[in-house]
Amino acid sequence: MTETTSPLSASSTSSTSSTPFALADVPGDDVPLRVAVVVGSNREGRFGPIVAEWLYARVRERSDLELDVVDLADSDLPTALSFSPSDAVAAELGKVTPKLAAADAFVVLTPEYNHSYPASLKSLIDWHHAEWQAKPVAFVSYGGLSGGLRAVEHLRPVFAELHTVTIRDTVSFHNAGALFDDEGNHRDPAGADAAAKVMLDQLTWWGWALRAAKAVRAYGS
């Protein structure tokens, strides 16, 4: 049997009123979407921050997006889930949960470890449920020959279980270490920049659509 609630969200996933809001209350295109970039690796010596800085710059270039960052190296979530987390665990959750809840959309940045994604990322996902629901998720991956794409394909069914919309187009960095110089600049950015624009355009479309829909009617009602 599939468990569909997280420890912290069991009481919050069945929200709520089916009374629609006035259309005038729906945020328009002039209200930027809050996009949380999830840096999925906490590995010692990770390459993720290099790719993350490139990604942050692409998001900041856009007036329709507002950047927030959830870097898993800055928190220490246990893999043992609990409906009554200790004070120490609650403090760690406090570093990430409000950012996930406030986000309109996500970009998950993941490496590929042994044909899949990091345990730190799975732990973040599993500690939350309602925070992900009815929001779009895009992926940026990096790795060797595969560019991290196998990690992305493993993440798609996980996020489908959480009622998200995953974006079809991704950005992947194959043999990532050779693509950036010692200052962290992409050596030949045109292709990656174009791919990022397509991905972020799709993410923004879904973000606006889902935000507007939820303003009219709560998801699941």
Can you walk me through this structure?
The chain starts with 32 loop residues before the first strand and ends in a 5-residue tail after the last helix. Strands 1, 2, 3, 4, 5 and 6 form a six-stranded parallel beta sheet that branches. The chain contains five helices and six strands. By secondary structure, the chain is α/β, with parallel strands linked by helices.
Write the topology of this structure.
Elements: E1 33-39, H1 48-60, E2 65-71, H2 87-102, E3 105-111, H3 119-126, E4 136-143, H4 149-161, E5 165-166, E6 171-174, H5 190-216
Parallel strand pairs: 1-2, 1-3, 3-4, 4-5, 4-6
Throw out a few tags for this protein.
5 helices; disordered N terminus; 221 residues; 6-stranded parallel β-sheet; globular; single chain; alpha/beta
Largest sheet: 6 strands, parallel
Distance between the termini: 24 Å
| SSE ordering | EHEHEHEHEEH
Low-confidence stretches: 1-5, 10-24
Share of helix, binned: 25-40%
Q: Please state the overall shape, judged from the principal axes of the Cα atoms.
A: globular
Which radius of gyration do the C-alpha atoms yield? 17 Å
* Average pLDDT rating: 90
Binned strand content = 15-25%
Q: How many β-strand stretches?
A: 6
How many individual helices? Answer: 5
Structural class call reads alpha/beta
